[in-house]
């Protein structure tokens, strides 16, 4: 049975943003933030690009750092511009990396011990931790050359290892944003508690994410665990997308699922649910990944070739076009943080069918912005498909508008960046 919750107001004003641009400096001097990501830019990281650009629009100087370039060619003009502004640590070459590690080993025994302990916990291993330590040595030099006063990493994985080691090497203090589910799948192996303990503050993208961080932080550090949502740019969604014809006797319900083809996204279960429903439903799976061939085989095995399309990966414009051709988004995920694809679909006035996991129920309202189902339950998912397929077009339209209102009120990138800017300023002297 589908879960029904009490109605909540659909119109929600964004949190009041601090007057960031009016206060470009504190007593500690002007802010210069180094943003650190392992691989940047990538097509799946548009939310980082939006955050960086929104912070710059509010008067904060940002230097972008990445350990390496993406193996895939950058295709969009916006990502090419970001790539041109990014400093790549591993472009320094193997000799400089080795020299940096030798210097660390001679002069910073505390940092060396921290990396050695982290490598023994079953995560990336000691060799990789030594590489992260060397990368941190090179990063510290670049921060000093450029006047960076604070480092902020995205993802609590190796990028946060690097900024933590950079601080131990005498570099700037750091903070980091966790997204999940990776950080919460292996918190001990990733030394998540040590990373929280050394940080000026830590960001989660949902209240659920903050609760997972609290499991690895002492009580007296909980006030440094903050929620800042991933943001979307309202300017990219100026008008609701009109629904395609139907669903009715001559037009099937058209669904789109956007995401990497991986176990945690649940697309294989969605194929099972499609096979179990007799309702007129057409599904488009947008994405690519390690399960692509298995999904093709499952579609053929279930005789769904005329009901399921797999067009491959699409850029932002392609995803928006796929949304325009759909009545609703569907995300059958087993594990998540808070999916950017979901909030973008909602901003485009599409209701959603998705699962009751992680931060999703904080955004979705069952029965009003779409349908929430238990994760891993193919029968419940099939029933949601049938219910959506028999929902009158006018009700689907109202649900889509409610979804749009909720996404735009909770995830405006300018309001969220202002929250982050306020945290940078508040903790600059820590």
Describe the secondary structure blueprint for this structure:
Layout lengths: L24 E2 L2 E2 L1 E8 L6 H12 L3 E8 L8 H9 E3 L5 H14 L1 H11 L6 H21 L3 E5 L3 H11 L4 E6 L3 H4 L6 H7 L2 E4 L2 H8 L10 E3 L25 E6 L8 H10 L4 E6 L5 H10 L6 E5 L3 H9 L3 E4 L8 H8 L4 E4 L4 H4 L6 E4 L4 H12 L3 H18 L2 H14 L4
Parallel strand pairs: 3-4, 3-6, 4-5, 6-7, 7-8, 8-9, 10-11, 10-13, 11-12, 13-14, 14-15
Antiparallel strand pairs: 1-2
Helix pairs in contact: 1-17, 3-5, 4-5, 5-6, 10-11, 10-15, 13-16
Share of β-strand residues: 15-25%
| pLDDT averaged residue by residue | 92
Largest sheet: spatial strand order: 5-4-3-6-7-8-9
* CATH class categorisation of the largest domain: Alpha Beta
Number of strands: 15
Low-confidence stretches: 1-26
Predict the CATH topology of the largest domain. Answer: Rossmann fold
Helix content: 40-55%
Architecture (CATH level 2) name of the largest domain: 3-Layer(aba) Sandwich
Structural domains: how many: 2
- For the terminal residues, how far apart are their CA atoms? 50 Å
Q: What about the largest sheet?
A: 7 strands, parallel
The CATH superfamily name of the largest domain is: Glycogen Phosphorylase B
Q: Outline, from the CA principal axes? A: elongated
So how many helices? 17
Radius of gyration: 23 Å
Based on helices, strands and strand pairing, what is the structural class? Answer: alpha/beta
